């Protein structure tokens, strides 16, 4: 068990691991805490010290981008941090959401963001943490996700209208 823990935290500073474990011991119900809980606590500690934005702070950055998103979607998208770019997918997301009612943004979209963004951020952090040789092998084997661009709301509506027209013509 000790060997497993030592292997899992070999690249981490022992003082940070100790701080994380001590903090978890004070708040955690089971002992010992799980390795995943310690890893999560280490991330929280490092993020708080390095100034990495919280999910709410990321939301603030995204909401500010929406303020100029109708005409400046491309510029606003390019200024976003990588996890937010990955969340949005393209500048059309900024443009489409900038046109929405503020109450919908502050309630529905904010709720959706808080539900899905942590997974997007964790995936981006994991991707960034991979060794460069591993990234190169994966890139050769699979098409990078950066090339994926989801359809914007207007494109989705256009496609739906085409389906309706097709159905009406056949009826």
- In total, the number of strands is 0
Distance N to C terminus: 68 Å
Tally of domains: 2
Largest sheet: none
Ranges with pLDDT <50 over ≥5 residues? none
- Helix-strand category: mainly alpha
Note the overall shape.
elongated
Secondary structure: helix percent: over 70%
Into which percentage range does the β-strand content fall? under 5%
Instruction: Write down the oligomeric state.
Output: single chain
How large, in whole angstroms, is the Cα Rg?
A: 21 Å
Could you state the order of secondary-structure elements as H and E?
A: HHHHHHHHHH
Q: Number of helix segments?
A: 10
**Mean pLDDT value:** 86
Which features would summarize this protein structure in a list?
2 domains, mainly alpha, 10 helices, 171 residues
